[in-house]
Design goal:
Layout: H1 14-28, H2 40-47, H3 51-63, E1 67-70, E2 74-77, H4 85-88, H5 91-118, H6 121-139, H7 145-157, H8 162-170, H9 172-191, H10 198-214, H11 218-237
Antiparallel strand pairs: 1-2
Length: 242
């Protein structure tokens, strides 16, 4: 393994800095899948931090399913991100995206459940129209960031609770960054024939959300949205191939 250079930043929490540094090693390919990370002692010494800080950073990486720790052996890269990820986002961006998924899972899962019981015909049509636009964009091999965002915004609006809309608005920068990265990776996968059906899978996930909201099935809507968000994360981190 080539030398791994640490680049401390002063403005952020130390555990987050270390987390982002290791994430950068993984994204850049300096640490490949199955490769062992520097030991806890080595990280403490190189980064000049305490063991609790190293352990907090490792826990975050484990939560994101990027590394696994084998007792008495060490910590290893569990999954390498999708090829070309570094072309579309920095380690800082990916760290924010992965962190935002925890919030999105809670926020948008409940928004979908409420939308299923409260949506008006007009609100349902807005969500359907956004999905139709996404489908047209994908058929034309275009990114569909605005339509994708409109879809999720439409679900939030269908809760008829302005706080959901406001909270989604607060996330809009990170949300659109996630959509841009995920869709760019999907486009590469489709064009290179690595995962030719990837766009179809994404559209199917959105369609299941629409179907549940239209049927006013609260629990199915919640599960469909949570499933979709979990799949976004998996596609970005390359936990699966599709």
């Amino acid at each position: 393994m080539s030398a791994l250079n640490l680049k401390p930043k002063k403005a952020d929490k130390l555990a987050n800095q270390l987390y982002e540094q290791i994430l950068d090693w993984i994204i850049s390919g300096m640490l490949s899948e199955g490769e062992k990370l520097p030991s806890e002692n080595e990280l403490c010494k190189s980064f000049q931090v305490s063991r609790p800080i190293v352990r907090e950073a490792m826990l975050k990486l484990q939560t994101d399913a990027l590394v696994e720790t084998k007792k008495g052996i060490g910590t290893f890269v569990l999954h390498s991100p999708s090829k070309g990820l570094s072309k579309f986002a920095s380690a800082d961006d990916i760290a924010v995206i992965l962190q935002s998924h925890e919030v999105r899972m809670a926020l948008e899962g409940e928004a979908a459940a409420l939308a299923a019981t409260r949506r008006s015909p007009g609100q349902l049509q807005f969500i359907k129209d956004a999905l139709d636009t996404m489908r047209s964009d994908f058929e034309a091999s275009n990114l569909s960031i605005k339509a994708d965002y409109d879809f999720h915004l439409g679900v939030a609006q269908a809760t008829n609770n302005d706080i959901f809309v406001q909270l989604l608005g607060d996330l809009h920068v990170g949300l659109k960054k996630t959509m841009a990265v995920a869709q760019s990776l999907s486009r590469v996968s489709v064009k290179s024939n690595i995962s030719p059906d990837r766009n179809k899978l994404v559209l199917d996930e959105h369609q299941r959300i629409v179907d549940a909201i239209e049927l006013q099935d609260e629990e199915s809507a919640r599960l469909a949205m949570r499933y979709h968000i979990s799949k976004i994360k998996q596609r970005i981190t390359n936990i699966q191939k599709k």
